[in-house]
Amino acid sequence: MIHWSFLLAAEAAEAGGMFDFDATLPLMAFQFVVLVILLDKIFYKPLGNAIDERADYVRGKTQDAKERLEKAKAIAAQYEQELVDVRRQSQEIIATAQAEAQEVVAKQVQTAQQEVQQEREAAAREIENQKAQAFSTLEGDVDALSWQILEKLLGPELAR
Asked: Alpha-carbon torsion 34, 38, 41, 46, what sign?
């Protein structure tokens, strides 16, 4: 039994070895080059362009996002400064209002104290007037009583 594969290998060795450099090799090379060119034109360049466009799009959006972030940070810083200014102004307004309120209260207290003092003085004068009236009435009554006592003790003729 002879092996067929051995015979085929022997025939191939006699025909020129493992590689035959006849017309098929340049034809295969030409087909390979045409295939590479077609793949480049049909597949790789559109794919490369799509990838480049996508990369440009992503770069543009990233740059846009960075710019927006910077603007947002600037606006936030501006708002923070405005907030600090507004707080400072509100504290000044509150302090001014408190000072004005204290002045108003002090004036009202002073006015009330003056009114109370005037009422005290008026009451003291009224008391003095009533006291003087009471003393004058009492003096008249004391005189009358004294005369009556004298008249009763000494009699009406000696008391006069």
From this structure: negative
Q: pLDDT, tens digit, for every residue of 32-65?
A: 999 999 988 888 888 888 899 999 999 999 999 9
- Distance, in Å, from the CA atom of 142 to the CA atom of 151, rounded to the nearest integer, reads 14
Question: 3 φ, ψ to 5°?
Answer: -80, 130
Query: What is each CA distance from 149 to 90, 136, 152, 153, in whole angstroms?
Result: 84, 19, 5, 6
The single-letter DSSP state of residue 17 is S
The count of residues in the chain is: 160
Structural domain boundaries in the chain:
4-126
Instruction: Please tell me the pTM assigned to this model.
Output: 0.43
CB-based contact 39:33 (threshold 8 Å)? no
Cβ–Cβ < 8 Å for 144, 153? no
Q: How far apart are CA 19 and CA 13, in angstroms?
A: 10
Mean pLDDT throughout 74-93? 95
- d(Cα 105, Cα 113) in Å, to the nearest integer? 12
